[in-house]
Amino acid sequence: MQCLDGSRGELNVYKRLPVTLVRGEGVYVYDDQGKRYLDLYGGHAVATLGYGPTAVTEAISEQARQLFFQTNAVELRNRQLATESLLNCVSGTYTGAFLCNTGAEANENALRLALFGTSRSKVAAMKGAFHGRSAAAGAVTEGNDSWYAFPRSPFEVVWLDPEDLKSLEKLDDPEIGAVIFEPVQGVAGAIDLPIKWLDELQKFCRRHGIVTIADEVQCGVLRTGPFLASSSLEREPDLVTLAKGLGSGFPVGAVLVTESIARRVSPGFLGTTFGGGPLACAAIEATLTEVGRRGLEEHVGKISSWLKNELGELGLALQGRGLLIGIKFSKSVHTLRHQLLEFGYLCGDAKDPNVLRLTPPLIITKDDLAPFIETLGEII
Ligand SMILES: Cc1ncc(COP(=O)(O)O)c(C=O)c1O
Asked: Which domains does the chain have, with CATH numbers?
């Protein structure tokens, strides 16, 4: 219970939906009254395989019995396997992975890797960006002044506008060492950054020796169809960060690194106590095996086209890619989101108050979605 009046309890820092969930199965979650909800939000785009995926729960249980925890001070067979499986999911450009616990931690370390050895002091980020709540990740999150501001930012941030090609000229600054972007901005409301603009951005960065970081914490791990959303770009970014869906709900994060950046680091440069622990690695390994076995890359492409078509027929304005979809309304979705909850549909919101965000488990089917589309049509 959050303590709303300052009495004992959890800090009052979240706006919560009026529902207490007790269990989940597949794409459905159940409240303490036994009511069933279709989860179209997937726990902030985390539940890649839905709830209770046997392969993942069994892998975690088995690992818990064998070796519950050990640190990066020792080798772990299942850490080697998880790292290998992760690198096998992406192109050969990425030869190294740093395993950690959250999206913010992945971005914090990616920024550290990008700036290390450059003696540059500025980072470029995008209008609308969300990269997390730690110091460096918060600094490149737009609107951080009112959210996560420390007295000082760890570096100066240059803001770019993806709708304006001319804003790339701001990168002509010898102090800029890194640029970070979400190929599809999640928290902003599922905003697909223009591929042409991102390609130009990367060309500019290459010319100016600026390291590029794709934050795929939300849009990675097949959320948009391919394993990485940035794989549709002409040139792959130098670093990619992942978290959310990578462990199907077990807290994990990762930074993928090119060979030239991997060569710059040595023991002691980065570190974490829990990152890359046995349970986390069991979750990663089982998730990656399972998404391949179930052919989810193809499924996401097909179900997304079908869903977008159905929603389009209702005359709705859509944004985003794959199963990271924003439905843009002309007024706040606050009431609509609560109405949908009453009908048994759990949907997400976004920083844009007029956007309803859908990030369901990737295993969702037409049969699961059809009643939602009908209800949404009736409400609007
Ligand atoms: C694109 C992106 N980056 C980073 C984060 C931060 O991740 P975490 O909450 O795991 O620190 C989020 C969380 O929503 C995100 O959507």
From this structure: 54-293 (3.40.640.10), 296-379 (3.90.1150.10)
